[in-house]
Amino acid sequence: MDSAVVLAIAREQGFACHALSVRYGQRHTSELDAAAHVARALGAVEHKTVTVDLRSIGGSALTADIEVPDSTVGAAGIPVTYVPARNTIMLSIALGWAEVLGASDLFCGVNAVDYSGYPDCRPEFIAAFERLGNLATRAGVEGAGLRVNAPLMAMSKADIVREGMRLGVDFSHTVSCYRADATGAACRRCDACRLRAEGFAAAGTADPTRYVP
Amino acid sequence: MDSAVVLAIAREQGFACHALSVRYGQRHTSELDAAAHVARALGAVEHKTVTVDLRSIGGSALTADIEVPDSTVGAAGIPVTYVPARNTIMLSIALGWAEVLGASDLFCGVNAVDYSGYPDCRPEFIAAFERLGNLATRAGVEGAGLRVNAPLMAMSKADIVREGMRLGVDFSHTVSCYRADATGAACRRCDACRLRAEGFAAAGTADPTRYVP
Question: Which residues bind Zn(2+) (chains A, B) (predicted)?
Answer without folding.
Answer: 177, 187, 190, 193
